[in-house]
Amino acid sequence: MIGVGGPILESVTPVLEWIAPFVPGEVFPYFFTMEMFQRALIATLLVTVIAGILGTYLLVQNLALIGDGLAHVSFGGVAVGIVLGATSPLMYALVFSIISAVLIHEMQARNMLSGDASIAIFLTGMLALGLVLLRLFGGGITTDIEGYLFGNLLLIDEDSFDLIVFLSLSSMVLIGFLRNALLAVAVDPVAARIQGLPVRNIGLLFSVITAAVVVSMVQVVGTLLVTALLVTPAATAKLVGGSFRSCMLWTQVFGIGSVMLGLYFSAEHDTGSGTMIALLAAVVFAIVAVSKVVSEGVFRHDDNMN
Questions:
Q1: Which domains are present in the chain?
Q2: Quick check: pTM over 0.85?
Q3: Where are the alpha helices (DSSP H) in 61-88?
Q4: If we measure between CA atoms, which residue out of 88, 69, 67 comes closest to residue 164?
Q5: More confident: 208 or 295
Q6: Within 10 Å of residue 49's Cβ, how many Cβ atoms?
Q7: Residues 183, 57: contact at Cβ < 8 Å?
Q8: Rounded-to-integer distance, Cα 224 and Cα 277, Å
Q9: Which of 32, 92, 179, 206 fits as disulfide partner to 81, beta carbons 3.0 to 4.6 Å?
């Protein structure tokens, strides 16, 4: 994992610098020319792509809440890391999120609790733990802490960039390798089990991948706004996509579009990147949803007239 982001940055930098003269705005072009902002842009695009892929699978399985729950869990890990003086609180977030994801999956698999109930317990418990620890030992909610809550691209240093790149790329590889099995389990776990697929192990690995992806998103949109990239673009794509593959493609279009517009407006108008991305993703969803309702109403009216 050490240094994995360096080669990515070096290979992409010439492309970004070539694009820079065509980028509008006074501040936004710096995302294509300055190394600090280049890291932020690359990290944001990487997590957007993997979040879109993962989010499509989550929607098929009706597991949209798991991302939000693990994001709140990761904040508890970040708080522990900050209190302990860690140089990379995201590593603590990763450990906490993976452990919680495994426990949630096992409780659901053993019918101890429903998925929503176990997620809700971990969500509130770990968020509360993080807030209490920061209040008692961490000096309260500082600007850096707000960055973990709502996203702050300036927090993405070299170490964080390496971790984000590693988690994003490794998650893409795993999902690509398991894509058929994941889809089979998502659509009909009973049939998948009859076919001989290790449904429980696949579900466990999928939970770990989800935890890793959520942690990679923390500094981009924050723990409170993870749903903006993990669920909203996939939900928007579901309104227009006719198949799983088309939904996957539309998710990337809506996700990357929301991110690039969000980065532009946040840079030019000095607003938080995470909140602006979340707002635009929601606006895009609303526009697509309203358009779909109106178009279906028009076609239904025409059918009735005929």
A1: 5-221 (1.10.3470.10)
A2: yes
A3: 64-83
A4: 88
A5: 208
A6: 18
A7: yes
A8: 13
A9: 92
